[in-house]
Design a protein that fits this description.
Strand content: under 5%
Family: Belongs to the histone H2B family.
CATH topology of one domain: Histone, subunit A
Helix content: 55-70%
Strand order of the largest sheet: 1-2
Radius of gyration: 22 Å
Organism: Steinernema glaseri
Structural class: mainly alpha
CATH class of one domain: Mainly Alpha
GO molecular function: DNA binding; protein heterodimerization activity; structural constituent of chromatin
Protein name: Histone domain-containing protein
Shape: extended
GO cellular component, one term: nucleosome
CATH architecture of one domain: Orthogonal Bundle
Distance between the termini: 76 Å
């Protein structure tokens, strides 16, 4: 029988020494929120309180959609969450016009991602070229004309 070492590591916690809990990584969407702010209003900044609010809003939205998508997968006995499941989850979680815009933006982002991963052999998405951005924004301009004011 092999001798057992005096300190055994199990999930980064010492068994015979002082135990330390690992801190969970919190989701942080700050860099993405800041990028979007700079795209919309290049001259504006954002305070830490506002960033914390938007970060918690984004994390809550992600959690709601993921939970609803997982529930849909469980009901249909599927083990993989597909984009159709996410579309359905968005439609269930958010009301009317908001869900339509969210699904439209999600489909646009997915098609942009698929376009660039097919052209790149490593499977990583490349940044969108200016010509591709203008092609994608042409559909956005025609969609803006159809929008009704609140």
């Amino acid at each position: 029988m092999a001798p057992v070492p005096s300190t055994v590591m199990k999930k980064n916690v010492r068994i015979d020494g002082p135990t330390k809990k690992r801190a969970k990584k919190k989701e942080n969407f700050g860099s993405y929120i800041f990028r979007i702010l700079k795209q919309v209003h290049p001259s504006l900044g954002i305070s830490q309180k506002s960033m914390a609010f938007f970060n918690s809003l984004a994390a809550d939205m992600l959690d709601k959609i993921a939970t609803e998508g997982a529930r849909l997968c469980k009901q249909t006995n599927k083990s993989t969450l597909s984009s159709a499941d996410i579309d359905s989850a968005i439609k269930l979680v958010y009301p009317g016009e908001l869900s339509k815009h969210a699904v439209g933006e999600a489909k646009k982002a997915l098609s942009r991602y698929n376009l660039h991963t097919k052209s790149n052999s490593s499977g990583r998405a490349k940044p969108v070229a200016a010509s591709s951005r203008s092609e994608l924004n042409q559909g956005k301009e025609s969609h803006a004309e159809e929008a009704t004011p609140l």
